[in-house]
Amino acid sequence: MNASSAAISFDNIEKNFGSLRVLQGITGEIHQGEVVAVIGTSGCGKSTLLRCFNRLETIDGGNLVVNGIDLSRSRLTSNQLRRLRTEVGMVFQQFNLFPHLSVLGNLTLAPSKVLKRSPKESSRLARFYLEKVGVADKANAYPEQLSGGQKQRVAIARSLCMNPQVMLFDEPTSALDPELVGEVLGVMQQLAQEGMTMVIVTHEMQFAREVANRVLFLNQGRVEEEGSAREVLTQPQSDRLKSFLSRMSFVNN
């Protein structure tokens, strides 16, 4: 792949929280249509890296370009920020649904306010994506009436309503009961098969091996190992990655 196919390009990026150096010179690219899993122990910088990709965090050094928008700049114009929020969707661990709005209300809010779509068009899109993720029958329900898996699928549908070019997933199954994990991973796998560019912070190693094109293993704010999913997860080179996979009870076969 050539550089022009990069949806996200990052070069020597750094992020500090006070004296704590969370990202310490990370470099790489996410190409259009690629699915990249980011793995590593808690506190290694995975979620921070993801939050930098959609400007929830600003970087302290290096260069970062996402969908042609230079996020290395200290300030973005309102149009740039609006474009970023439209083109880069993010799904969080805790769903972040508005509790006072119905499922349909959660999905139609941003298309109406940000994209200026009509109520009819916003509703049509919302119902289309609810059908896509398998919760069309929950359109009029409220978040408190949903299971964790249903909430996360609604959150994915909400992001899709903005017609994003890139989807970021921050440990989307970590808050779910084990029996509900599969229904969310199934939706993500479908998106991957349809060619959506995706960056996924995950502890689901089997899913990463089956769905991701590449895996980045972060350790103490640096990329310690990267490569194809099968290569990294079944033939780890560093002792730290071997130890991490052993703790995750991942069978290298």
TrEMBL record:
<dbReference type="Pfam" id="PF00005">
    <property type="entry name" value="ABC_tran"/>
</dbReference>
<dbReference type="InterPro" id="IPR003593">
    <property type="entry name" value="AAA+_ATPase"/>
</dbReference>
<dbReference type="GO" id="GO:0015424">
    <property type="term" value="F:ABC-type amino acid transporter activity"/>
</dbReference>
<keyword id="KW-0547">Nucleotide-binding</keyword>
<comment type="similarity">
    <text>Belongs to the ABC transporter superfamily.</text>
</comment>
<dbReference type="GO" id="GO:0016887">
    <property type="term" value="F:ATP hydrolysis activity"/>
</dbReference>
<dbReference type="InterPro" id="IPR030679">
    <property type="entry name" value="ABC_ATPase_HisP-typ"/>
</dbReference>
<dbReference type="GO" id="GO:0005524">
    <property type="term" value="F:ATP binding"/>
</dbReference>
<dbReference type="InterPro" id="IPR027417">
    <property type="entry name" value="P-loop_NTPase"/>
</dbReference>
<keyword id="KW-0918">Phosphonate transport</keyword>
<protein>
    <submittedName>
        <fullName>L-lysine ABC transporter ATP-binding protein</fullName>
        <ecNumber>3.6.3.28</ecNumber>
    </submittedName>
</protein>
<dbReference type="GO" id="GO:0015716">
    <property type="term" value="P:organic phosphonate transport"/>
</dbReference>
<keyword id="KW-0378">Hydrolase</keyword>
<keyword id="KW-0813">Transport</keyword>
<feature type="domain" description="ABC transporter">
    <location>
        <begin position="8"/>
        <end position="245"/>
    </location>
</feature>
<dbReference type="InterPro" id="IPR050086">
    <property type="entry name" value="MetN_ABC_transporter-like"/>
</dbReference>
<keyword id="KW-0067">ATP-binding</keyword>
<dbReference type="InterPro" id="IPR003439">
    <property type="entry name" value="ABC_transporter-like_ATP-bd"/>
</dbReference>
<dbReference type="InterPro" id="IPR017871">
    <property type="entry name" value="ABC_transporter-like_CS"/>
</dbReference>
